[in-house]
């Protein structure tokens, strides 16, 4: 504000000192010019004469001038703009717990007020070291409260349990898993009478991002079993014999934790065709894997072995022998009904405008995998976040955001289906890819 305008406002305020709107204009002008008198002119203001936005501004001016107690009287109210200033005032007064409550209330009401640096200050630990003799007391503020258990949690976060209700679509595969896998775990006595054991091996294959890993986690959640997600790096080792030893130890852990579900993602990395490898160590690992699955030395009852692969034709055929991965399930791209269900699950819990056309979006996303749909929703969320930051208020995801995102997101299953069609046509020994052919014919892609 230029000096002439500010001087005119000050003269007018002298004539009408009780004019709250004029006093606020003077405070804003002085504050914009960096004039320390801005706080002094707040002396005759009362919180009741100001809007929440004006009260938040005045409180910030007073806090900056060091008048925290006076600022607190203005930063009183449920509005998020007042709560965030209240958090700063309370922090300045040393009341961290109350400041954190105010901060959380502000962010809950309006996420655009989130301030990472402020939150770190609110969570900082304050340690007071008592003086020795006549020496001063030392007050230390530290944000480093990460102990070893917290580090383990960050590096290996425990995934929350899920069930089939959290998996959109795939009704036929869920039914097959219920009958072939879950029932033997739930009714062991009945199956024992027929000399059937709970456990075994199931291989799921299909395009990337269609829910194979999610199905494995949901299966473990359905049977309330210990879920062991075996990553490739948990097994492979550069030293001869170590990979086999690690694999044996993982199976021993599963046998000791029954009922348990072992899940091997990207199975081809551990169980590739032996005739295609030049390294004897890879063949030995495959042989060890086959031995562990047979349960010849140890009893695998109560251990369910799930595996997923995008390239089932690269897996050693010995794994398909009955007693190993004798049940093979094709996990196709979701159909229209499944896509609508997946979109509802992905949008659940996010700020969403009420008129989202899930069925319409499902009809426009043919060939999309579950991961593609998640990418679609995340891209729409990015647009809503950008709009929220621009308007300084929460803007929910609406149909326009989703349609705009749809214009740039493309399905990723087409390439896999093209490759799978060739294997299904020319390398379909024993009808192992009949499900793929049936899917391609049903969708006119055979």
CATH topology of the largest domain: Rossmann fold
Give the count of helical stretches: 20
Which stretches are poorly predicted, pLDDT < 50 over at least 5 residues? 144-156
Number of domains: 3
Strand content: 5-15%
Give, in order, the helices and strands: HHHHHHHEEHHHEHEHEHHEEHHHHHH
Estimate percent helicity: 40-55%
Categorize the overall geometry.
elongated
Could you state the CATH homologous superfamily of the largest domain? Answer: P-loop containing nucleotide triphosphate hydrolases
Largest sheet: 5 strands, parallel
Question: What is the CATH-assigned architecture of the largest domain?
Answer: 3-Layer(aba) Sandwich
Count every beta strand, where a strand is a DSSP E run of 2 or more residues: 7
N-end to C-end Cα span? 72 Å
The level 1 CATH classification of the largest domain is Alpha Beta
Using the CA coordinates, give the radius of gyration: 32 Å
Key traits:
single chain, alpha/beta, Serine Threonine Protein Phosphatase 5, Tetratricopeptide repeat, Rossmann fold, Helicase, Ruva Protein, domain 3, five-stranded parallel beta sheet
Structural notes for this entry:
This protein is an alpha/beta fold. A five-stranded parallel beta sheet has the order 4-5-6-3-7. The protein has three domains: 3-128, Tetratricopeptide repeat domain (Serine Threonine Protein Phosphatase 5, Tetratricopeptide repeat), CATH 1.25.40; 164-330, P-loop containing nucleotide triphosphate hydrolases (Rossmann fold); 336-406, Helicase, Ruva Protein, domain 3 (Orthogonal Bundle), CATH 1.10.8.60. Strand 1 and strand 2 form a beta hairpin. The protein has helices spanning 3-15, 20-32, 52-64, 68-74, 80-92, 96-109, 116-123, 148-155, 171-186, 188-193, 212-222, 242-255, 268-271, 280-294, 336-347, 358-363, 370-391, 399-406, 414-426, 434-442; strands at residues 125-129, 138-142, 200-205, 226-230, 260-264, 303-309, 327-330. The protein contains 20 helices and seven strands.
């Amino acid at each position: 504000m230029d000096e002439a305008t500010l001087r005119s406002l000050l003269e007018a305020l002298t004539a009408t000192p009780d004019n709250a709107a004029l006093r606020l204009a003077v405070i804003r002008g002085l504050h914009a010019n960096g004039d320390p008198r801005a706080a002094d002119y707040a002396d005759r203001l009362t919180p009741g004469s100001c809007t929440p936005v004006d009260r938040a501004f005045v409180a910030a001016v007073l806090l900056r001038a060091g008048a925290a107690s006076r600022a607190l009287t203005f930063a009183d109210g449920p509005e998020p703009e007042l709560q965030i200033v209240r958090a700063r005032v309370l922090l300045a007064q040393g009341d961290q717990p109350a400041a954190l409550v105010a901060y959380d209330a502000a962010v809950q009401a309006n996420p655009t007020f989130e301030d990472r640096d402020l939150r770190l200050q609110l969570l900082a630990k304050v340690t007071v070291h008592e003086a020795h003799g006549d020496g001063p007391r030392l007050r230390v503020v530290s944000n480093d409260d990460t102990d070893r258990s917290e580090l383990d949690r960050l590096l290996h976060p425990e995934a929350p349990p899920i069930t089939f209700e959290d998996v959109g679509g795939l009704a036929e595969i869920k039914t097959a898993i219920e009958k072939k896998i879950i029932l033997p775990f739930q009714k062991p006595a009945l199956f024992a009478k027929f000399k059937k054991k709970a456990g075994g091996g199931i291989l799921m294959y299909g395009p990337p991002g269609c829910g194979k890993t999610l199905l494995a986690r949901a299966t473990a959640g359905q049977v309330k079993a210990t879920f062991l997600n075996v990553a490739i790096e948990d097994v492979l080792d550069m030293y001869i014999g170590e990979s086999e030893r690690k694999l044996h130890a993982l199976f021993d852990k599963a046998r000791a934790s029954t009922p348990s579900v072992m899940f091997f993602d990207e199975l081809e990395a551990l169980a590739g065709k032996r005739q295609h490898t030049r390294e004897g160590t890879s063949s030995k690992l495959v042989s060890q894997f086959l031995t562990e699955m047979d349960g010849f030395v140890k009893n695998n009852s109560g251990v369910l072995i799930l595996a997923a692969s995008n390239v089932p034709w690269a897996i050693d055929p010995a794994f398909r022998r009955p007693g190993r991965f004798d049940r093979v399930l094709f996990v196709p791209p979701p159909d229209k009904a499944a896509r609508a269900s997946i979109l509802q699950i992905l949008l659940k819990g996010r700020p969403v405008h009420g008129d989202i056309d899930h069925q319409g979006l499902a009809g426009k996303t043919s060939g999309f995998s579950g991961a593609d749909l998640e990418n679609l929703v995340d891209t729409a969320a990015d647009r809503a976040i950008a709009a929220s930051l621009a308007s300084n208020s929460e803007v929910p995801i609406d149909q326009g955001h989703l349609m705009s995102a749809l214009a740039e997101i493309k399905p990723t299953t087409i390439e896999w289906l093209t490759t799978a069609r060739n294997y299904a046509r020319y390398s379909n020994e024993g009808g192992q890819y009949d499900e793929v052919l049936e899917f391609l014919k049903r969708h006119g892609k055979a």
